[in-house]
Each structure stands twice: as structure tokens, then as C-alpha cells.
């Protein structure tokens, strides 16, 4: 399995201000699936994505990513594991402010030991794929939020990760850019069998889902009918 959650709960705070963000969520996702999570604000989508991306650990329950128990993995080892296996986009894009777009995209490659020139070359190809070929030399503060979002997607794809985790990837994009980005994600999913997790409010995103999951109050509800993928590449 690509990802398996067993009775995963996440509780924030304690005492009076205790929030149950996830309540005994169990989920098995096979390699190559494209899982789209929808649901109201506060239903636990980001928390679930954080746990799948190994950026956060559950309060209780088991999490296996690519067959590996990531709950009990020491932080240092987990960082390496994440860099190698998981590309992610979260709502704060976390582009490094003093690096250009291409340097930002090259960063995870360089961190894995790819030579700088090769990493920058690949970064430029990735930027082209997200329609940012002209922005390679720009710093994050010189880019609109939509451009930063696309640069962060390019960075998430840099290491050809088997697992891609995207939180609201289309939130700052106009219809054209959003549909191009969805086509790119669908292509990566199909061609590389990348397992994709996306949280979104955008109904268009459901078009690239192989599984549609609704969240409500920290619980997951699978759509009865698996979605028929409409977006062709
Ligand atoms: P969604 O992504 O569906 O909007 P979240 O996973 O962000 O939902 O949030 C789920 C619940 O957990 C919400 O009630 C939210 O307020 C709470 N929550 C999320 N992150 C934290 C945090 N770091 N500290 C305290 N509560 C949090
Ligand atoms: P550090 O110098 O802190 O060890 P890294 O080289 O691991 O940082 O990563 C640099 C930046 O790239 C970070 O801000 C991180 O958010 C981002 N990043 C690293 N790996 C990934 C990935 N697999 N997907 C998306 N962003 C990543």
C-alpha cells in the first residue's frame, strides 16, 4: 500500500481547549490512486494531509507510508524519508525568500545530492511545466501568490516523489492556470503512478480523483460511487 492509516486520531491542546481534529480515521490507499478530500473548513483535511506527508504525527493510531511505520521513526530519519518520497504543497508555500524560483525548485534535488547545474536545469524544466519559464530568476516577493503557488508545486515535483500531497493547490489560480495545473497533476499521477492526495474546496479538482473522500468533524466518508475521471490528458 502507498499509505495506510489505522485508527488515527489527532487532538490539539488539552484541558479546556481540546480539539479533536481527526477521530479514529482508517484509510488504505493503493499506489497510483488520486485521492481528493473535500469538506468544510475545520473538518480535518489539512491535519490529515500533514500526517500523510509525515510533517505531523498522530496523537494515537498507526501510519504506514510506502509500508514504513512513520509514527515511530526518529525525526532525522523521517526528514530523509520525506525528502526522498513525499512532495508537498501547503497553504504557506514556504519558498525561501532569498532564493530565486529556480533555486527554490532545485533545493530538494540539491539536498538529495544532485549536482547544482543539473538540479537547476531540472528546476527550469519543472518551472516550464507550471507555466513559469519566464519567472525562473524572480524572488518570491516579486511573484504573485498564484505564481508562488505554482513554483511550490514545481518544487514538490522535483524529486519525482512516489507520493504527492497538495493542500488547496488551485486556491490562488485563475481558471486557466488551475486547469493547466490539474492536467499536470493528472499526468504525473498517470504516467509515474504517483499517489496523489489533494484537499480542496474547488469542485473542479474532483475531476482528477480516482477516490473522493468527504471529511466532517474529523471523520472520513468515502463517496459511494467512485468518481469517473473526466479530465483527459
Ligand atoms: P481543514 O483543513 O479541514 O480546514 P484542519 O485540519 O485545519 O481542517 O483543522 C481541524 C481542526 O483542528 C479545526 O478545529 C482546527 O481549528 C483545529 N486545529 C488545526 N490545527 C491546529 C493547531 N495547530 N492547534 C490547535 N488546533 C488546531
Ligand atoms: P533544510 O535546509 O531546512 O533542511 P530542505 O533542503 O530539506 O531544507 O528543504 C528546503 C525547502 O524545500 C523547505 O522549505 C521545504 O519546505 C521545501 N521542501 C523540501 N522537500 C520538499 C518536498 N519533498 N516537497 C515540497 N517541498 C519540499
UniProtKB/TrEMBL annotation:
All copies of domain ABC transporter, residue ranges: 3-233
Cellular component GO terms, alphabetical: membrane protein complex; plasma membrane
Keywords associated with the record: ATP-binding, Nucleotide-binding, Transport
Source organism, top-level taxon: Archaea
GO molecular function term, any single one: ATP binding
Keyword Repeat: no
Family annotation (PROSITE patterns): ABC_TRANSPORTER_1, ABC_TRANSPORTER_2
Name by which UniProt lists this protein: ABC transporter related protein
Species of the source: Pyrobaculum calidifontis (strain DSM 21063 / JCM 11548 / VA1)
Lineage of the organism: Archaea, Thermoproteota, Thermoprotei, Thermoproteales, Thermoproteaceae
Amino acid at each position: 500500500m502507498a499509505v495506510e492509516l489505522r485508527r488515527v486520531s489527532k487532538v490539539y491542546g488539552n484541558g479546556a481547549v481540546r480539539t479533536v481534529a481527526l477521530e479514529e480515521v482508517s484509510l488504505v490507499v493503493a499506489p497510483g490512486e488520486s485521492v481528493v478530500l473535500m469538506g468544510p473548513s475545520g473538518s480535518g483535511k489539512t491535519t490529515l494531509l500533514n500526517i500523510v506527508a509525515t510533517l505531523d504525527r498522530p496523537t494515537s493510531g498507526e501510519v504506514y507510508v510506502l509500508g514504513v511505520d512513520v509514527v515511530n521513526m526518529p525525526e532525522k530519519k523521517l526528514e530523509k524519508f520525506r525528502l526522498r518520497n513525499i512532495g508537498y504543497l501547503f497553504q504557506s508555500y514556504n519558498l525561501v525568500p532569498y532564493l530565486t524560483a529556480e533555486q527554490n525548485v532545485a533545493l530538494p534535488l540539491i539536498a538529495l545530492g544532485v549536482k547544482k547545474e543539473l538540479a537547476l536545469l531540472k528546476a527550469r524544466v519543472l518551472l516550464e511545466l507550471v507555466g513559469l519559464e519566464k519567472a525562473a530568476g524572480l524572488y518570491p516577493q516579486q511573484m504573485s501568490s498564484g505564481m508562488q503557488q505554482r513554483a511550490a508545486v514545481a518544487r514538490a515535483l522535483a524529486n519525482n516523489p512516489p507520493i504527492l500531497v497538495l493542500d488547496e493547490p488551485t486556491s490562488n489560480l485563475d481558471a486557466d492556470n488551475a486547469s493547466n495545473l490539474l492536467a499536470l497533476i493528472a499526468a504525473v499521477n498517470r504516467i509515474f503512478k504517483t499517489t496523489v492526495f489533494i484537499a480542496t474546496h474547488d469542485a473542479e479538482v474532483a475531476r482528477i480523483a480516482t477516490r473522493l473522500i468527504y471529511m466532517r468533524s474529523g471523520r472520513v466518508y468515502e463517496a459511494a460511487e467512485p468518481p469517473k475521471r473526466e479530465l483527459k490528458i
